Amino acid sequence: MRVVIIGSGAGGLSTASNIRKYNKEIEIIVITKDKYVAYSPCAIPYVLSGKIKSFDEIIMHDIEYYLDKDINILTETEVIEISPTKNLIKYKRLDDTKIKELKYDYLVIATGGIPAVPPIPGVNLEGVFTVRTLEDGIKIKKWAENCEHATVIGAGLIGIEMAYGLKHLIPEVDIIEMASQVVPRSLDPEMAKIIQKYLEKLGVNVLVGKTVKKIIGEKRVNAVKLNNKKINTDMVLLATGVKPNISLAKKAGIKIGKWGIKVNEKMQTSVRNIYAVGDCVEVKDFITGENTLSPLGSTAVRQAKVAAKNIIGKKCRFRPVLNAMVSRIGNLEFGSVGMTEINAKYHNIEAVCGMSKALTRARYYPGAERIYVKIVCNKDGKIIGCQVIAKEGVSERIDAMSIAISQHLKCSDLCEMEFSYAPPLSTVVDPFVPACEEIVEKLQNG
Amino acid sequence: MRVVIIGSGAGGLSTASNIRKYNKEIEIIVITKDKYVAYSPCAIPYVLSGKIKSFDEIIMHDIEYYLDKDINILTETEVIEISPTKNLIKYKRLDDTKIKELKYDYLVIATGGIPAVPPIPGVNLEGVFTVRTLEDGIKIKKWAENCEHATVIGAGLIGIEMAYGLKHLIPEVDIIEMASQVVPRSLDPEMAKIIQKYLEKLGVNVLVGKTVKKIIGEKRVNAVKLNNKKINTDMVLLATGVKPNISLAKKAGIKIGKWGIKVNEKMQTSVRNIYAVGDCVEVKDFITGENTLSPLGSTAVRQAKVAAKNIIGKKCRFRPVLNAMVSRIGNLEFGSVGMTEINAKYHNIEAVCGMSKALTRARYYPGAERIYVKIVCNKDGKIIGCQVIAKEGVSERIDAMSIAISQHLKCSDLCEMEFSYAPPLSTVVDPFVPACEEIVEKLQNG
């Protein structure tokens, strides 16, 4: 049996490793346009910031590592066509014109996402970048060395991480966001304000509610034009989102949904022996039940496990997503899971919210840091979202709330929950509790 | 209406504060033998270690703080008798013989615990201590200043925290534990071994599987006698557990259970208008359904909220406990929630366990630290316990598992759970997952 996997990102390589973990016989071939495989693209901003010493460090494994596991990887190779009726793909090396064919028993599409480039004049100028691959990271770092001013367009997660990273290489960094706040998809305004202030404290200029109308330059960028002003700049980074890379699947007649490749709980596409995982697929949202995107490395890895298990005949399903995300800027961590209040409104869900501002440890214990918690419930008191900002423990707290939301817990349940306590590690009343109590009271008082 | 509260620990004072939070009219009187109130006894070891500068810092509030809230506190005052039929108590100042009476509408017994002193000859010698109150802490610190060698008897939580604290004041510290491991109530042997090694690395001599037969000395302690040897020592700390302080309640005819004062879900005793909270009550264990003790500050605080709400007529219940505990020795944090494998065996629960050794952050991210996770399931795969050791994020992880266990999650559920990921905060596969996968496989293979 042969499994062919298109794409060497988190989704593709995890599928390969998972199949091999459970089965030593299956032939596994990964085909990728990338030169480097098994690196962590999420870590690129931290190489720019210098926190991680070099790009080499974020390469987790080399080709030999996979060869040792009897996983074949064809790098710098492009799949041209999928032929579901013949169970074969056509492919060619990037530096060659010769097209080859390869039969498969199972095919896994893990083609990932491609940066969504906004329709702004000038996006093709030299010095305008998107960031997706390690090579993008290397090019950006090199270009940044000679810059006095950089402009990041889009203050989503990648935008602010990159702005923070670039600030370590470039004296002036502006981040320009169309929405009236940073991280609009994952944080509510009052939480976003904390992140914005922190970014500003770190020296990044944050411009929210502003649109870049034009990127100006002859051959290379030298300014961006906003509604009412022009800002000279040496570099533009487009951090305006990612869209699923679905062209191959579409051409092959595989069913595409509203957002990406349609898959069932097994990660199986509309074609029985073709699976798809990662940023190229659409998933179900746990709260709304609607289809959505979840372009996260952790999502891809979980999907890969599901696809691999199903291919080898084990039962496993991929659950609707809560889009648990976390990030870190400087020393500040923040995260979000489920719905924000704003997203709830957008989906016509009546939200009742509670906030708490507390400490991460007993107030007298050295290193106790401020923590901000926001909990979002629906009108029945069921928890549908949570946002946390602190200098520590954010990821674990988001995970705790991911478990709570997935189990349909109410804010009243969390008020009665048993949390651990020791002065060096936590506070005697967990910060989640007062936020939940606020909601309980709001609900009681109508 | 008047509420009288006996005891000024976490249970007593939290009951007072909670009643006042919801009701400004009720007269509240707290009676306590203690001189200092509203301090954090759990923090005493960290004052000894010097991490917290002085005992003053762990006093959260003074008497005036409570007076401002219209909460009266009678310190250094002892309740002599409770008369449930007359709704009154008799009390006297410690330095006086005059007995006074006080009527109550509701009485809250928050008399806490008293150190369980083992029946070893010599426990009354000078230089033999127990630790419970701030005054104990002050006395111990003073005595320790002139010691060359200290012996801590009992390697439970308090024992190892105190041994670690004392090591900063005394050149040689032995900790002697009857069981074959440290922290026998909350950790399984392989996890306890990590803590033991760390303690030893910090210079504490750990003697497990050893019993102190006698404490030797004329007026003051000068040695401890074990089965086969004598160890010279200048100080002995008895950290051999705590037992509920139930004498007042017992004398008043209030129903006592196998372990402590019997209460219902409202924290109401067998007498309608008498409540009890904190270390003096027995609670229901979530896993076994049997009665047990939960002598934790966080338990007392949650019980206090329940008692207060019920006294003022709001609905609130105290749920069965999972005994979530966390601690920190040096830079190492550890915690446990629910059943250990050993405790499960003791309760005739067939346990299936999984372990994982992973990292707290992406392996290339500076500050990534080792994390050890053990998960305990019953034979249906339902999670009944979890232990975590790491240098960060332990408390939040224990809380996440407290939520998971309280919701009857299975290990297979956790394998499919959505965990957050960013290289500076976490790993792409959460350490809980491989531990749960190990259990799933064990269960599948019978």
From TrEMBL, chains A, B:
Residues 1-303 form the FAD/NAD(P)-binding domain. Residues 331-428 form the Pyridine nucleotide-disulphide oxidoreductase dimerisation domain. It comes from the Archaea. Its cofactor is FAD. Keywords: FAD, Flavoprotein. Pfam families: Pyr_redox_2, Pyr_redox_dim. InterPro entries: FAD-bd_OxRdtase, FAD/NAD-bd_sf, FAD/NAD-binding_dom, FAD/NAD-linked_Rdtase_dimer_sf, Pyr_nucl-diS_OxRdtase_dimer. One of its GO terms (molecular function) is oxidoreductase activity. Gene3D superfamilies: FAD/NAD(P)-binding domain. PANTHER family: NITRITE REDUCTASE [NAD(P)H] (PTHR43429:SF3), PYRIDINE NUCLEOTIDE-DISULFIDE OXIDOREDUCTASE DOMAIN-CONTAINING (PTHR43429). Belongs to the class-III pyridine nucleotide-disulfide oxidoreductase family. This is FAD-dependent pyridine nucleotide-disulfide oxidoreductase. It comes from Methanothermus fervidus (strain ATCC 43054 / DSM 2088 / JCM 10308 / V24 S). The lineage of its organism: Archaea, Methanobacteriati, Methanobacteriota, Methanomada group, Methanobacteria.
